């Protein structure tokens, strides 16, 4: 069981969490993955999203807000869940849980 100290989410780490897969960094990875299976009739949309990068690099607590919520949010959630591990953030030289924000217009 996590102690209260271990469950704190650091909003301002000294070093931000980092993700890169095959040389493509986040958020470009999310946009690229989303575009791979875009259907005809796609409508551009604005997305605001946040999630927590855990101390071990896993992603948790995904929150998505978009004008196309029902149509695209589950697809974006799947992309985030399948990204793989991140390099976690650091605060005062220690690995910490960090919240990551994503605000973009996907077109």
From TrEMBL:
Listed SUPFAM superfamilies: TolA/TonB C-terminal domain
Protein name as annotated: TonB C-terminal domain-containing protein
């Amino acid at each position: 069981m996590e102690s209260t100290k271990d469950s704190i989410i650091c909003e301002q780490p000294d070093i931000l969490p980092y993700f890169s897969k095959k040389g493509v960094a986040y958020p470009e990875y999310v946009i690229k993955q989303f575009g791979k299976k875009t259907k005809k009739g796609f409508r551009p949309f604005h997305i605001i999203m946040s999630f927590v990068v855990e101390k071990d690099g896993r992603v948790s607590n995904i929150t998505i807000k978009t004008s196309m919520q029902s149509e695209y949010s589950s697809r974006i959630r799947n992309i985030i869940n399948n990204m793989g591990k991140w390099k976690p953030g650091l605060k005062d030289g220690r690995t910490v849980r960090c919240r990551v924000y994503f605000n973009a217009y996907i077109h």
